[in-house]
Amino acid sequence: MQLNEAIASRMNHDLSGSVCAAQNAVQLLDMSGTPAEKAEAVRLIADAAAAVATRLKFLRMMFGAPQPIDNDVVRAYLKLVNPGVSLDGEVATRLQLTCVAVLAHTAIGKSTIAVRPDSVSAEGMVKISPDSKKILQGGAAEVSPINAMTFWVMEQAKEAKKMIHLAVSERVIKITLV
Question: For residues 90 and 115, is the Cβ–Cβ distance under 8 A?
């Protein structure tokens, strides 16, 4: 699978859950009888629409034309991916943003993603997949929707003329950009 196919598949996966939730809420609204049921259905539709909008904004920053990073969108995206993840620092580059996206998916529970000029790290309950670890260490792995963002980190590093150094311990995953 080519990287662009894997990214498209990943984006479809990330967006489909919220779109399906909105669709289900519309059906609920059609079947609702009481004002409370209708209000709940409208709230579910609004929540799903907000989730889709946040994901689209984040994905546009990561994969679209270069644009300033909106850290409010980054924080909202992290809350969607894992409510236990917090952001320490400000994301300034697309490479940092992509590292944040990869590390957000390593969080098992409460954790902090720290962004510094030369590194992005996740600390807390974290676990990196063997393929992502191999890719970030410069090894080979099959391109798939699951590891598409990790390959995108490597593409962004090449574009930024940066090398990636990965350090992994039981509670910390650190990507150093040199």
Answer: yes
Angle (deg, nearest 10), helices 35-63 and 3-31? 170
In 73-156, where do the E strands start and end? 85-88, 107-116, 119-126
Mark residue 34 as left, alpha or beta (left: phi above 0; alpha: psi -120 to 50; beta: remaining).
beta
pLDDT in tens, 90-110: 999 999 999 999 999 888 889
Structural domains in the chain, sorted by start: 3-177 (3.30.565.10)
Return d(Cα 164, Cα 176) in angstroms, integer: 6
**Cα separation, 106 vs 173, whole angstroms:** 9
Write down the pLDDT at residue 1: 56
